Fold each of these.
Amino acid sequence: MFSSKTNGQSQAQVSRLSEAQVRSVPSIISIDLKVHGNLSSNGEIQIDGSVEGDINCKALIVGAKGSVSGEVTAQTVRVHGAIKGKVKANSVFLASTAQMSGDIEHESLAIEPGAFMEGHCKRIAVEAQKVTEVKSPALSNGVNAEKLSQAAAS
């Protein structure tokens, strides 16, 4: 009579579901584990062992003893161990113990002194810059170039 239900679920069940969706525990590849294959996650992955394969996740942390051989795609990547392959991420951090061999595509890149980096670094343009490039250029009085060329043709 007084209990709150949402589509057959109690309020406590709904609360636990939303809590689980907001905070998820990172997936951990421990130091004694070796993985051959691709990894994909909507959350965070921490590599302390070794992975031979591509990784696609929201956030990747490669521990000091961890190693990755393959392509990495993530929003954020923190490297304390070794990566051999291409990294594509919004934010990349290479700690002083990092051993990076491969190209990095990034929006933000930080490299501590002592980190090893062999490869090319390419900055990915921020979405806001791409949007302004697509729009037609406006003149100072607010008339765009297309209207100006139409008026000139008349």
Amino acid sequence: MAMKAGVWIDHKRAVVVLVTDAGQEIKKIASDIDKTGRPTSTSRSKHRYTKNDFVAEDTLERKDVSHRNKYFDEVVACLRGAGAVLILGPGEAKGEFSKHIKAKKLRGLTVELETTDKMTDRQIAAKVKEHFTKAPAKKSVAPKSKKAAKKKAGIATAAKPTKKSRR
């Protein structure tokens, strides 16, 4: 079995679970996004206005995007060697992370998304392990015809009336 990975991610922290034949490994990555931003109210100057009171909105947005990309790159570095990734999370971060992975164009990496609420590390590990053990069972072989499908389901098919018998 190739290495599989699960990531529970939001904008503050990420929990990476790597599942292999030997066992599982859990890594935690914290984001520095909260540390940057606007100054707190206690650092306000006594003057009415200072040049730092007004920061352009696009500058703050570029800073946030830059920090987020660095954070996502740290998480992607933990996923090296994985064949499949399950991305879990409560908000928009999982979609942004999925787009970031696709932008990196990692070869042979299949990505699946699932919305979940906050979880403990053990719950995340159990969910990832369960997902990858159940994944092959999801593939089903569809019967070739409708009659074969009904026969397989145990539904008897009655002969359809012809146009002549309808009159």
